[in-house]
């Protein structure tokens, strides 16, 4: 896609007014098709490449140099994080990604975080989420597992520029972003703002769509203004989750699904899970759980794994919550789903997703980490660099972000 095409698409997406966190009625599905990708010319060959050198994938890094760095000469993006090999090896557009720690053979996500003076998140909160991504069950071409989350606090917003209620949220957000975020970073970075409130409410934060490249964390109206470390950490990862394609039900917007073990599920946003005995681990779903019927709850059997997830995988996960209460047991067995202090052998019905029915059947859940979308709805990735992007990459540019509803509010926390 040319820069012009991309600019036009970005403009049309903006005009659609896609503001959001979680709900379902937004624009979804492919927008109208854009012209086929032009086979352009690489602006500049990589250091070490001669004009005559073969560049099979046309990404500006000739095959000889790809061999030196161990990148794939047949892929413009060896590690699949939507940052091109060229940009990760040599920088692009004035942004020196390698100096910032980019690795062309391991997935990277870059986030610039700015904050209001009294809304600065703790380093402990950031470290929790960096660790969660480092522990991600995602494999890389360099043989490692995990994702490197480059999550750094950049600037404090000047007091005069603090807008205590972002309203309309993205209009006011853009005023701040225009001043504090370098436009050259846009193809590579998500932008996160630690603000106070938006739209006059107490929602914990909002993502600019699913997927998207912008999000805000707004814990100003919570009982501890600005949030506790756990609330900050969980909200960062939850809103970032929307940025990288996750919904409240994983693949759909159905919240509180008991068999969806992810902090995208409100039940877990500010608590996380207990994993192998460690409490408050913030994680997207790393297991697949079979369909579950709340009309026939069997506490002894708990949840059933879907391959390749095993019973042993489920058994590591504790700290489960049912209707706002943490319950004993683990996801594999002896799970006290009605929190009455004992494991019942007889089956029973309970409204676990708070929808007024005790007969909901929840579909099998997804493995979130393998479903992430790294391209920020087409905005992340230096699309102008390569000359022969695969069509599947271009297609992701045609999917408009989805409109979403406000995320978890303070009320639900106060009620706890
Ligand atoms: Zn949400």
TrEMBL record:
Q: Which SUPFAM superfamilies match?
A: Metalloproteases ('zincins'), catalytic domain
Q: Which domain of life is it from?
A: Bacteria
Q: Which Pfam families match?
A: TSP3_bac
Q: Which residues form a coiled coil?
A: none
Leader sequence residues: none
Q: Which GO terms describe its molecular function?
A: metallopeptidase activity
* Predominant location category: secreted
Instruction: Provide the protein's localization.
Output: Secreted
Q: Which UniProt keywords apply?
A: Calcium, Secreted, Signal
- What name is this protein filed under? Peptidase M11 gametolysin domain-containing protein
Q: Which organism is it from?
A: Corallococcus exercitus
| Taxonomic lineage of the native organism | Bacteria, Pseudomonadati, Myxococcota, Myxococcia, Myxococcales
